[in-house]
Design a protein that fits this description.
alpha+beta, two-stranded parallel ribbon, 32% helix, Beta-lactamase, 13 helices, nine-stranded antiparallel β-sheet
Length: 420
Amino acid sequence: MGGIGKRRRIGVRLAAVALAGASVVAVAPTAGAVDLAGTEAERRARVEGQQELRELVEHGGMTAALAEIRIGRSTWRGAVGVAELGSGRPARADGRFRIGSVTKTFVATVVLQLAGERRLRLDDPVERYLPGVVPNGAAITVRQLLNHTSGLYNFTEDDRFLVNDEAELEDYAYGRWRYQDHRARQLVAVAAEHAPYFPPGQGWKYSNTNYVLAGMIIQKVTGRSWQRETERRIVEPLGLHDTLFPTSQTGLGGPSAHAYLAMPAGPADITRFNPSVVDSAGNGISTTADLNRFHAALFGGKLLRPAQMADLTTTVPTGTPGGSYGLGVLRIDLGPSCEPAWGHDGGLPGWSTLLLGSRDGKRQFALSHNPFVGTDDSASGPAIGSLIVKTLCDEQRPAARGTAPWTPPSTGPDLLVTPR
């Protein structure tokens, strides 16, 4: 099996020889923007939102940034940057993108629906559904998979999934490495070669292995792939026409901004890759509009019964200030002037996604941006944090305005080119 990750130490060295993100990215006009009337606070959020998307591209090391903000019945959607370097084509506000670990929220929702139908129980051992697949599977519950308290090793931290030197990075950029096919059982087997981080239930550690297993459990219980079950239960009923969960297909199946890796010879296009390497832990594709519609339906009570909503939002501490984790969702405390935000972040090589919203399902913020991998994107945090505050904090709460920049927490390992 090949690797797809890159440690930060390599990123630092490459930054010295690669083109800077700002030198190859021109800010393009918004394409497909939506601007609906609303309150003064909502109009301000839209105007400033476009400015902050521009900040991400001009100074944040991004080639493109797309966002949709929903506040009540008002919606703003915009895009900044280019769809493809050198083409002059603007990024589309309705473009598709890889959502990375936001996929986990979809998968957890399906598992919770099955629990509500009494087809599985969250406190059942994994061994009941996947006998012999996981060492110590009799001591690990389905719930512990979903909230990352299983202790299982994260397979994407294995050396086979990391780029450890410049030669391997070049192979990833220009070679066949990122097109290799993987199977769920192979990914779990890699994790099983490593000792667990801690005994089940005695700590918290984000692990993509947990959600690969959750996908396998969905297939075991329903007789259908986790992709098909997610489509049948969520995508089709909600009309999420631009949301898909591929198997080994390398494209996005629709218009999208491209993803790039900075190399000494110039930008390498890494848009296409085989997403089976992350399977049900992060292979989804969607749009900002579809993600917000999903979030509104989930937290608006349209997808889960009350008991399962309680399970979804029962969190455990992650060790990150202001952050805790439920079943496939993050809870982020934005401070005393704002309600907590609920959602997930996600990252894949050249793609970064954030989906957050209010607990009552009335406010959503979806963002996709394309980090020019290998360049400095540290300036992106304040712009993203400001967008979140404007979406999820009330105008009537003055302390929320001008809040210190907030950086979304990284749920995954400290890697630049690896799934989160």
